[in-house]
Amino acid sequence: MENQKRRSETAPDASAKANDDDEWVSTDDAIEGALGLDDDPSKLNSDNWFEPTAPLMEASTYHSETTQLQQDTEEVVIESYNEHPSMEFLYERHVQYVSLCLTRPMPSAYTMLDANHSWMVYWLVNSFHVIKHRDSELSKELAPDDDVIANATEAWINDDGKGGIGGGVGQIGHMASTYAGVLSLVLTRRFDILERIRTGLYEWVMSLKNPNGSFKMHHNGEADTRSTYCALVVATLLNIVTDEFLVGVEAWLDQCQTFEGGFAGVPGTEAHGGYTYCALASYFLLHKEPTFKGLDVPNLTRWLVSRQFQLEGGLSGRTNKLVDACYSFWVGAAIPLIEIATKTEQLFNRYALKSYLLRVAQNSRGGFKDKPGKSVDFYHTNYSLMGLSMCEYLTKLKTDDANELMAFRFHHEPLADDVHTEATNPVFGLPEVFVSDCRGHFQQLDGH
Ligand code: FPP
Ligand code: ZN
User: Which residue stretches does the UniProt record annotate as biased composition, category Acidic residues (predicted)?
Assistant: First the structure.
């Protein structure tokens, strides 16, 4: 059998050298090593074992900046795996990190995020609630102050919703900041504010609708799958979806699926995990049953599962790009969705993704980062925690209540006794309990 070269080799213990560039092994050996069969065949069926192993794909002889970056990343990831053998979840550190970020003045580097106040608040408050709180004293002491959160969010609302929600005080309404602002009001259960602004928000969202079924992000702004998803989330949560709102929406989304299988932001461009999430989640906001007429589900499935790296365990956002913890949600939330769409279980290696999150992306002082060498931040913390939740539960569609949209019909089965996260709704990006409270509130108010 032809020999192949291993790019890098797993070190079974922390002292071993990570990079064996010159080692040549037979294909059989490589496969056995990769699956861990040389150590213990029972590991193959184990759901709590992950060891970074060399990719089975033969390393390309073509070298470029892209292949170099991939190789460098594999090396730092292996280093991190070796330095952090434990799967411990640093509960207290994360709660303290989130609380400090919400209450302390921000470092000057954050001035560039001035148009993202509503995002930052959502990322942090949501992070707090996605964490499963075992220490009730600490969680009570450091819980975000709902009044402060809701008052801040209220200050970003323009003209009682008729101008959308901005990213800060005095800023124009933007579909993404409106989405984040609405989610923060759901997280603080301020349904009174949402009731007050929902008619105005409906008018504003409809003023951004294009004749082709897409929505603009803001007046004179771009339209892509993000804005469709944000508009659908806001309208669905507030129970203001109309036939007029829905005209052309799905047909436009269908056009964004690319030859690769994933979705681009707009028709004819590159498939990307973020845009794919927005599109796939949107179908769950449009339908009651997992039938997707205009969608190539097998091609989407193949593209999604190809996002998981064998060695890193984590996910990338597009072909030939690097692992990044935030895709644990953008692509990771597609795991339950595509499992529902294909009526298949465990299409991804959840334990491998969880290993990347806890042993590579988790910061020892709290919070999560994209990958080794990057700094911890609010955004990666929120999407890593939600990604962790995708790994900790199996999510299925409830069979009762068939008149309800799929996005409101998830039920979640924990895969272990010691989960660190709350069951999270993969379509709304919120712990499930907040989604059902909001749905219950507006259903009761409107009688449907
Ligand atoms: C990086 O692209 C882009 C991201 C990390 C964000 C992608 C997420 C979205 C488009 C979804 C947004 C969702 C809402 C609700 C507004 P890159 O080119 O820097 O990174 P890459 O190299 O990993 O592709
Ligand atoms: Zn990222």
Answer: 20-31
